[in-house]
Amino acid sequence: MTAPSPAAPFPREASRGELLICCTCRLLKGPVPSRTDGARQLCDCTPLEVRRAEPRWGGDFNTYAELCRCCGLVLLRSGSRWSVWFCAPCKEAVLTLNRSAGRWLIPIGRHSLMNGVGASAAQLRSEIGVQAFADQLMTLFGTMSGLEAWGCTILQRNLTELGFDTEHDTRLADYLDAVKSSALSPTAAFEALLSAAADPRPESGPRAR
Is 136 exposed, middle or buried (0-12, 13-18, 19+ CB in 10 A)? Predict the structure, then answer.
């Protein structure tokens, strides 16, 4: 199991710009810092067809940054299909879990190859091989959806814990400043992620398959 490079946190305060945490989908939105061409990061509340019609200003897709999908405490660079979804502590915890299981219980990023899911040309020449690959992809997509839901859940918990009004958008800079002086930690978030994954209720978080 090959470990992908860790996602790079932003080193400068200015990189947060005027981005907001959406009060509905809990994703980041707003003007992209350091750009003068009006580029904006759009959250999931913007219709998909509108997002797809936007001029490409990013890498593989128009996402400047996102918060760690496990703890929601660290801002990470994004925009590449190879972007890692976790900060360094959460990434290490996820990889340790996956190694101990001998398979990818929690996806590390959006590209299937990052999660050990791929198929050779020979495999794709047989009906059984194609079906096996399709089954792997469906399982992966399911865990990705669950992880995305968890990212929303943990961010909601963090905002509430930090005393923010969750009925309105939150300035990313204000949130990250509050995180610095809080007791919130990636370790506690990972433990909560595992508890949610073990909960039989489908809305509780990502399900390990």
Answer: middle
Cα–Cα distance between 125 and 147 in angstroms, integer? 32
Under a CB-based contact definition with an 8 Å cutoff, are residues 90 and 72 in contact? Answer: no
Going by their DSSP bridges, the two strands 75-77 and 40-41 should be labelled as: unpaired
Instruction: Work out the burial of residue 56: count CB atoms within 10 Å of its CB; fewer than 13 is exposed, 13-18 middle, 19 or more buried.
Output: exposed
pTM of the model: 0.78
Integer distance in angstroms from the first to the last C-alpha of the chain?
17
In whole angstroms, give the CA distance from residue 38 to residue 35.
7
Give the CA radius of gyration of the chain: 18
Region label for 142, one of left (φ > 0), alpha (ψ between -120 and 50) or beta (otherwise): alpha
User: Would you say 52 and 40 are in contact if contact means Cβ atoms under 8 Å apart?
Assistant: no
pLDDT at 141 over 70: no
